[in-house]
Amino acid sequence: MKKFLYIFLTIFYSSNALANQPKDWQLGFQDAASQSMREIVNFHDNLLLPIIIAISVFVLFLMIYVSIRFRASRNPNPSKTTHNVAIEVLWTLIPCLILIVIAVPSFKILYKQDTIPKADVTVKAIGYQWYWGYEYPDENIIFDSYMIETKDLKENQPRLLSVDHEVVVPVNKVVKVLITANDVLHAWALPSFGVKRDAVPGRINETWFKAEKVGTYYGQCSELCGIKHAFMPITVRVVSEEDYAEWLTGAKIKFAKEPLLENENIKIASN
Known about the structure:
The chain is α+β, with helices and mostly antiparallel strands. It has 5 helices and 10 strands. A 5-stranded mixed β-sheet has the order 3-2-1-5-8. It has a 5-stranded mixed β-sheet with strand order 4-10-9-6-7. Helix 2 packs antiparallel against helix 3 (85-114). The longest helix is centred in the first third of the chain and has 35 residues, at 35-69. The N and C termini lie far apart (58 Å).
C-alpha cells in the first residue's frame, strides 16, 4: 500500500522524483539541468501528455458506448452497414492533424539539438565492452571510466552509476561531445541534459549540452551492447570555472595522453 501511495504522490509532487539520478518508484523525468532538457520536458508535459490523455479518454468512451448501445440484447437484428464515408474521412484526417500539431514543435527541438554552437570544451566519449573512455582533445587528456563495484562504494555514491574517473566540465559552458565506439553499438545518454546519441564503430556522432547547475549527473549506456550492458554508467561532474581550471591542471599530469617534457611537467604542477 505504501508503494502505491508513493507512486501516486510522485505524480503530483514531481520535485521529489526529479533529481540528478533516478530514484526508487520515480515516474517523472530527472531534474532538467539544461535548456534542451527543459524544452523536452515542457513538450512532453504540456503537449504530448494532454493529447495522449484526451485520446485515451475518447477511445475508452467509445468502447463503453459501443458495448452498451450495440449489445446483443438491444440489437436483435444487427445493422448490415459496412461503410460510412464521413467517419472514414474523420478518422483519417483527425490523426493527421494531431501528428502535424506534434511534429512542428518536435522538429524545432530536434533542430536546436543538432545545431551545435561554438564549443568551450570538447570531450570525446568512446564506448568499449563494457566501460567508457574519454578524451579532452584540446587538453591532451585521456582516461578510462569504470563502474565502481558495490563492495567499494562510498557514502552517497549510487550503485551501478558511480565511476572511478568522472567527466568534469565547467558550468554554463557549451560542451561538445564526440561519440564513437571501439567494438559494438553503444549509446551515450545523460537524462538531465536531454542528451542521447548512438556510439557507432567507425563513425563519430556529435551532440552538446550546456549545464546550468553545479552538481553530479548520472546516465548509462542506452544501447543493448552485451552481457554487461547494465554496467556502463556515465558520470559527469559540473563544477565552477575555478574548480574546473584546478582539475584541469592536475588532469593534464595524471591523464596526459603523451609524456610531457620534465620542464613542462614542473611548469604545470607549479600552477
